[in-house]
Amino acid sequence: MNRPVYQRSNKWLAWLMAMAILIMPLAAFGQTQIVLHANKYKPSDDVKLGRQAAAEAEKQFPLMRDEEVNAYVESLGQRLVAAIPPEFQHPEFRYYFKVINARDINAFALPGGPMYVNRGMIEAAHTEGEVAGVMAHELSHVALRHGTAQATKAQKYQTGAAVAGILGTIFGGPGLGQVAQAPFALTFLRYSREYETEADLLGARIMANAGYNPRDLANMFRTIEAQGGGGGGFLSDHPSPKDRYARINQEAQYLRVSTTERSDRDFLAIKERLSGYPRAQTMAEIQRSGQRYPNQGSNYPNGDRTDYPSAPRGRVDYPSSRFRTYNALGVVRLSVPDNWREMSEQDSVWYAPTGGYGSANGQSVFTHGVNIGLAQTNSRNLQQATNDFLNTLQQGSGNLRSRSGYQRTDVAGRNGLSISLSNTNEATGQPEIVSVVTTQLRNGELLYIISVAPENDYNTYQATFQTVLRSVQLND
Ligand SMILES: [Zn+2]
């Protein structure tokens, strides 16, 4: 069961070609030389490390499941990968690109190729070139093998450190064994200023090779600064070289932009699309919530486009017989099993057990639980208002079908209606039963209580749902 907070737009705009951008004077001799640092690890070690870290990162952060957004970022990323100078290409590396549904203006790349771009980064950028700039910078850390170079430096006197063991060195946090329990360090991949400067310089070169104005990399740092540094985002992960902006622009003089066909049309369509989603949490909020995303899995490194398996699918605990009372929406008191969590959405609150919720296509999806909320309706007639509400539900869940007609019921001593519906869960594809109970507040707003459980689990939950419903009190 999900809520129709977002309408899918069918507009998918084809590439618009031929928008001229400034061509730089050709002066390759002026480019700064970049050399690889000493590194005792093999490129295949980078790949192994990145794969482990990626699997952990994907358990901690929700990925966007919007295929258009993902395809856009993946294709932008692969265009940059193709523009890495040959001397910094590693045939073992597998670059892939995913979008984290987080608000911070941030992006990070892991050794051997996985890269994660926050939704907030795309939303903050003014042009595709700015997004490409941050991605090119991150890509450069990977191509220059900065993670394992840093570990080499830190472990000069150690021999044969296990791959998992050196992750801690790279991330400046606990080793991967502990990472599995502790939150994945937010400040991972802190590099020295020297490494940052190298990533800026190579990033500028990649930008130019890929047909972007390298100055957009510098512009993005300005954009991030102008937005207050992105709240613990990219700039705080990046000890900024002081003259970064000037340095990139200086380097740009010597770079020639290879093509002249980048347009912002797709970028603007993607930004528009993202703006249709509910506001994302910050990475820190996500970590504080403690929610894990065990089913995301990083499909690495088979080189195929990653599929975005559906969540939730975890084990769901039997509802506790002890209840906890909550105040919701300013007008409701209700009791739910004390092993359910409370999660607020835009105009409603969910109560659900661990394993009974997750996300699909960027939306929250619930397999088990109770959703209580308020809807504005045009009708003072309860049945008409409930009809209107069910119509909006159906827009969000095309498979929703009535199993019964309306039945009169009592909600906190008021007239109420209840109806039972069947649905196919958006994330799991499993049949589920959705029961909707409505009543009206004194101001005419419609209060709804939706309970949902998989069809084959419904009997287990029915008594719990009844208890929750009976506990409802209204103080409007
Ligand atoms: Zn960096």
Explain this structure to me?
By secondary structure, the protein is of the alpha+beta class. The chain is 35% helix and 19% strand. The protein has 15 helices and 16 strands. The strands form four sheets. Strands 6, 7, 10, 11, 12, 13, 14 and 15 form an eight-stranded antiparallel sheet that branches. A three-stranded mixed sheet has the order 1-3-2, with helices on both faces. β2 (107-109) and β3 (114-118) form a beta hairpin. α4 packs across α8 and α9 (215-226) runs antiparallel to α11 (244-252). The longest helix is centred in the first third of the chain and has 18 residues, at 43-60. It is elongated, with a radius of gyration of 26 Å. It starts with 42 loop residues before the first helix and ends with a strand. Mean pLDDT is 78; it is low at 4-28, 157-166, 168-188 and 299-313. Zinc ion is lined by residues 137, 141, 191, 196, 199, 238. Zinc ion binds next to α4 and α8.
How are the SSEs placed, and which strands pair?
Blueprint: H1 43-60, H2 67-81, E1 96-100, E2 107-109, E3 114-118, H3 119-124, H4 128-143, H5 146-154, H6 163-171, H7 176-179, H8 193-209, H9 215-226, H10 234-237, H11 244-252, H12 265-275, H13 283-289, E4 323-328, E5 332-337, E6 340-344, E7 348-353, E8 357-360, E9 363-366, E10 369-375, H14 382-396, E11 401-402, E12 407-411, E13 414-424, E14 431-440, E15 446-454, H15 458-471, E16 473-474
Parallel strand pairs: 1-3
Antiparallel strand pairs: 2-3, 4-5, 5-16, 6-7, 7-10, 8-9, 10-15, 11-13, 12-13, 13-14, 14-15
Helix pairs in contact: 1-6, 2-4, 4-8, 4-9, 5-6, 8-11, 9-11
